[in-house]
Structure formats: structure tokens, C-alpha cells
Amino acid sequence: MAIESAMQQGFWIDGRDVSGDIGAFNNIGSPRAMQDTPNIDKTAMQRLMLRGDGIIDYAGYFDDATDKLFDATEGMGAADQIGLIAFGGPDVGDVCAMLIGKQTDNQFTKDPDGGVTVASQLIGTGTPLEWGLMLTALSDTFSSSGSGSGRNDGASSPAGAAVVLQVIDITSGTPTVVIEDSANGSSWATLVTMSAVANGAEPTAERKTVSGTVDQHLRITTTGTFSNLVLAVGIRRGESVDDLAYT
Q1: pLDDT at position 78, please?
Q2: pLDDT tens digits for range 123-138
Q3: Which of 50, 96, 123, 232 meets the CB 3.0–4.6 Å disulfide criterion with 166?
Q4: Which of these CATH numbers, 3.30.450.150, 3.30.70.970, 2.30.40.10, 2.60.120.1110, describes 133-237?
Q5: Confidence class of residue 177 from pLDDT cuts 50, 70 and 90?
Q6: Where in the chain is the domain with CATH 2.60.120.1110?
């Protein structure tokens, strides 16, 4: 990877593709609380790391088309939302940010010139913002069951993974998305099986975790009888520095 611009990004909230409605991200962060613990025998401040958090703060434009920004933000309910942002590319392996959060704001501004803008944010709940890599090139379409081209991460990892799936659209049928891993890129095994989603239940999103070793090659496989599944998938490999291992 190298220095990249943010000329083309994707943003999905609970399966709704709001990429075309977003003008800016004001903050995509994974802040961490700190506790000051100064001791009288030290000449500098000491601190303890406390709980992690996450935020996606964004600004966009009023769009009341089906499954666009107004539909994604107008409810202001207590239920969790699942957000996924893809950076750069668009390529498999692009950096992504994944967050389960509560929507805490939904501000509409009417400008004197007639423009309408929207400001909202997701604040993490239960898990911090997770930085991962995309398994789709922004969003991909599976016309029927089969496997994607896959990604080679160069090495296996021992600490599990978290997967976020955004199901954007289905023409017909009921697909199931399976994340597979492989040590050699030719012999594949199931890593995570996401919940089956029937046509009409989309847009929707899901996050699942798995423990143990994740082999170096990863790909998406879809099963079931369906047509034209549009989806976006991000995955984060667990690390030894994580506070809690994925289960």
C-alpha cells in the first residue's frame, strides 16, 4: 500500500448505500479513554489505557429516495446501526472502517441559497471502531452462487477476525454469504457463515466474529438459489494487542 487520496469511497449504513449522498466525513475515529495516574516519584504524567470507542461523524445532502440517506437517518431509534466505510481503490484489499453504533444526531440545515444539508453521526456501542480491509471492490454483485477472486494477506494470523456484511440488494431468492480462508489459495474452508437473507429483507447488515487461526488467503463464497446479490464486505484480523480476543 502507499499514500492514497480519498477520491472514491463507499459508505453503507445497515445495507443502505449512502455513498452518493455524503459530502464529507468530519471524524472517523477510534478514541480511547485515559486515566491520569500521576505518582509523586515521577517527573512526568503517567496514564492508564481505558475503554475504546468509535465514531463516524458525517455530513451529506437531503435525499429521500428509497434506501438513501433520509431513510438511513430519519428513524433515530434505539437500535444499533452497522456502518462500513471503504477507502481508496476501488479494490479488494482497500482499507475500511467498521462500526456498530447508535445514531446520536440528525441535523438538517436549510441554506439561504436553497440548499439542504444533513449532519449525523454514529457513536460506538459494545465494540470500538474496527479498522480492516475490504473483501469487495466497494460493492460487488454476485449474479448467482459462486466464489469471488479472493485476497492474499501474505500470512496467517492467530487471533480470529470480525466480519461486517452489508446486503444492499437482491433481485430474487435467498443467498447466504460465506467467508472462506485458505493456506495456499486453492484449498478453501469455511471461516464464517453469515445469516441467510431473503429477497425483501434487504437492505440489512450483520457483524460476526470468529476465533482462532485465520489463514492468509480470504474470499467470499455465496450459496443458495438467488439472482443479483449486491453486497459489501469488510474484515478485520484480530491482533495480539487487542484487549479482548475475538470469539
Answers
A1: 83
A2: 999 999 999 999 999 9
A3: 232
A4: 2.60.120.1110
A5: very high
A6: 133-237
Residue type, 161: A
Backbone angles phi, psi at 69, to 5 degrees: -60, -40
Contact between residue 60 and residue 69 where contact means Cβ atoms under 8 Å apart:
yes
Residues 6+ apart with CB under 8 A from 11: 17, 18, 19, 22, 58, 83, 84, 85, 86
Mean pLDDT of the chain: 94
Question: pLDDT tier at 215 (50, 70, 90 boundaries)?
Answer: very high
| Helix, strand, or coil (residue 246) | coil
**pLDDT confidence bin for 62, thresholds 50/70/90:** very high
Please state, in angstroms and rounded to a whole number, the distance separating the CA atoms of residues 240 and 105: 35
Amino acid at 117: T
Distance CA 178, CA 189 (A): 10
pLDDT at 6 over 70: no
Q: Cα(241)–Cα(58) distance, rounded to whole angstroms?
A: 29
The pLDDT value given to residue 162: 98
Other C-beta atoms lying within 10 Å of the C-beta of residue 169: 16
Written as one string, the DSSP assignment of 13-72 is ETTEE-GGGEEEEEEEE--EEEEE---TT-SS--EEEEEE--EEEEEEE---STTSHHHH
Alpha-carbon separation of residue 14 from 6, 175, 213 (angstroms): 22, 17, 28
